[in-house]
Structure formats: C-alpha cells, structure tokens
Design brief:
The protein is built from eight helices and six strands; from the N terminus they run E-H-E-H-E-E-H-E-H-E-H-H-H-H. The protein is of the alpha/beta class. It has two domains: 157 residues, SPOUT methyltransferase, trefoil knot domain (Alpha/beta knot, 3-Layer(aba) Sandwich), CATH 3.40.1280.10; 58 residues. A six-stranded parallel β-sheet has the order 3-2-1-5-4-6. The chain is elongated. Pfam families: SpoU_methylase (PF00588). GO terms for molecular function: RNA binding; RNA methyltransferase activity. Belongs to the class IV-like SAM-binding methyltransferase superfamily. RNA methyltransferase TrmH family. One of its GO terms (biological process) is tRNA nucleoside ribose methylation.
Length: 228
C-alpha cells in the first residue's frame, strides 16, 4: 500500500519542515502540497526537516486540490459531528478495521489557520478525527500529522494479518454514480440530497469488494426500475 500525504495551503515553514522529517520517520511514499504559501525548498524548511530534508524531493506542488486526490481519500478535521454526514468521523486506530488495505491511502490535512472547507471535505471518502481534550481540541498541524502517521505505520507496517479485499475504484465510482442518480430522482430538496449523497459515499468507502458488488447490484436494479 502506498501512503500519500496531502497538505492544503500549508502556511508555516517550520511545520512543513517537521512534517518532512515525520514523512521520513514513517516512510511516506508521496507528498503533495496544494498551493503552499512559501517555497517548499526554503532554507528554514530544510533546517527543521533535519535528516528528513531529502524528502523535499518527494514533494509535488499543485494548484488543483482534486489533482492531489487519489485512492482512498481520508481527510482530517478537529470539527466533527455525528449529526452532519460531512463531519461524521472515524478514529485513527479504526482505519484498517474499517477500510482494509487500499492500494493507495491519501491522508489530507488542511490549513493551520482554518483547516479544510466543506467543499474540500465533500471530495473525501472519510473524515478522520484525532480526539483531544474538549478544553483545547485543536492540535498543531505537525503534531496531528505525527499521530496519524504513527497509527498508519503501526496498523499497516507493523501489524500484519488477513484483510478483506478492497473494492475496485471503478466499482466505487460506478456505485456512487448510480446512487447519485437515484438521489436526484427521489429527493427534491437539494440540501437533503447532498447529505444523503455524502452519507452513501462514506458508506461505500467502508465496503468490502463483495459487499460493494452486492450494493451495486441492488442500486442498479432500483435505477432500472425507476428508468434512471
């Protein structure tokens, strides 16, 4: 499994340097910076990267957020809510249990100042939340990256064992497309339709290959019956 780290509009050179060091600690395969606010090769970045400075060669800088997303996309946020499908979340130690071992795991972290927007969260297959004290739940970016990368390292590199087969990305896109067509046909309220679509996307991301095929069969039958 390849691990890709995506940083959206990173603002701090010191944090970025620490994150490069972490990427070397935990053997991150790919690093993507979306519209960084500084030169990723700045000397201050490299200083704080220490012996991880060679990982700056792995950094790909892009302008398009969607271009950075590939495989199973897991966004991170300090703001969560089980009442909002967009902010319904999984915990770091649940990753392997809920999603198995995809070909590529893309971990998305937002801006130090405001995190990820709702539009950016909509592109994710799941939302990951690192719980902390309710009195001060917002973590420093590099600290949050450290916690998540450690969990990924522990679950996927250290703990080995049989895992359910992950569905093909083609089947995932197909199932989501059918579900979206059904939602458009059956739910007229745009806000409710969006919430249902997000919930279905998150549900499909957790399915095994066989579960997804069964769901796709059912969804296709429903769509055919409705003439969609």
């Amino acid at each position: 499994m390849k691990v890709r780290l995506v940083l959206v509009e990173p603002e701090g050179k010191i944090n970025f340097g620490f994150i490069l060091r972490l990427c070397k600690n935990f053997e991150v395969d790919e690093i993507v910076a979306v519209r960084p606010k500084f030169d990723v090769r700045d000397e201050e970045v490299l200083t704080f990267a220490a012996n991880g400075r060679d990982y700056v060669d792995k950094v790909k800088v892009v302008d398009d957020y969607k271009e950075a997303l590939e495989g199973l996309v897991v966004c991170t946020s300090a703001k969560v809510s089980s009442a909002d499908p967009l902010r319904d979340f999984v915990l770091p130690w649940e990753l392997k249990e809920k999603f198995g071992e995809p070909e590529r795991l893309t971990l998305v972290f937002g801006r130090e100042s405001v995190g990820l927007t709702r539009e950016e969260l909509k592109e994710c297959d799941a939302l990951l939340h690192v719980p902390a004290s309710p009195q001060y739940p917002v973590m420093n970016l590099s600290h949050a990256v450290a916690v998540v990368l450690w969990e990924v390292w522990k679950q996927y590199r250290i703990e080995k064992g049989a895992q359910p087969e992950r569905p093909d990305e083609r089947d995932l896109r197909l199932a989501l497309g059918v579900a979206e067509r059904l939602a458009r046909a059956l739910i007229k309220d745009e806000a409710k339709r969006e919430r249902v679509t997000v919930a279905i996307k998150r549900l499909l991301a957790k399915a095994t290959r066989q579960e997804l095929r069964n769901l796709l069969y059912l969804l296709s039958k429903c769509a055919n019956r409705l003439g969609e």
